[in-house]
Amino acid sequence: MARTQAADYGERREAMLDQAAALFARAGFQGASMTDLAAACKVSKSLLYHYFPSKEDVLFEVMSSHLEQLVDDVNEAIERGQGDSDKVNALIHAFMRHYAGAADRHKVLLNELGNLPEDRRGVIVGKQRSIIDAVQLLLAKLPGSPKDAPRLRAFTMLLFGMINWTHTWFDPAGPVSPDELADMVSGLILPSAR
């Protein structure tokens, strides 16, 4: 007989991924065992294995779920914004709010990708590229954006360069809020703010 899923399966799984991200961000993927993960999640190893067959699966899901949220952020910004500048501004704000609340997952994504086998790394890199490509298409519509592909890609990567590493120095509880920081980034990116 198949084992049934608990009503709170999804919530428990997400909570475990949050704890795993915190542990991987602190100790690194290589520095954390399944025993360490179970302890961090306050569950038995057997329960952890019920949710995730391997440590690699945990790492993949930490990264994949983080990127899926960023894809949702891109789609929501595109759907909600009135004009192209509004869409870019909404996107930058959504990314900054997401990064502020998922600093551990973001750190794991940036630092631990090399610990996935090639096939799974390819899935993650593919998701990253789809996000970058969608943002690039949005930036291309802005007046004053570079029109040739190499410069447009550089412009896009400058945006990501500004926001991707905020987890190393930005304190969301500090004197500058994530929205204020997003306003600063928007002011540098959007032609109407120049």
Output mean pLDDT.
Answer: 92
Whole-number count of domains: 1
Number of helices: 9
Q: What gap, in angstroms, lies between the N and C termini?
A: 65 Å
Percent of residues in helices? over 70%
| CATH fold-level label | Tetracycline Repressor, domain 2
- What would you call the shape? elongated
Radius of gyration: 19 Å
Regarding quaternary structure, what we see is: single chain
Contiguous low-pLDDT stretches (5 residues minimum) are none
Total number of β-strand segments?
A: 0
Strand fraction equals under 5%
Largest sheet: none
Protein model, in words:
- The protein is mainly alpha-helical.
- It has a single domain, classed as Orthogonal Bundle (Tetracycline Repressor, domain 2).
- The chain has helices at residues 9-27, 34-41, 45-51, 55-80, 84-101, 103-112, 118-140, 149-164, 178-189.
- The N and C termini lie far apart (65 Å).
- The model has no long low-confidence stretch (mean pLDDT 92).
Short description:
The protein has 194 residues and is mainly alpha-helical. The protein has nine helices and no strands.
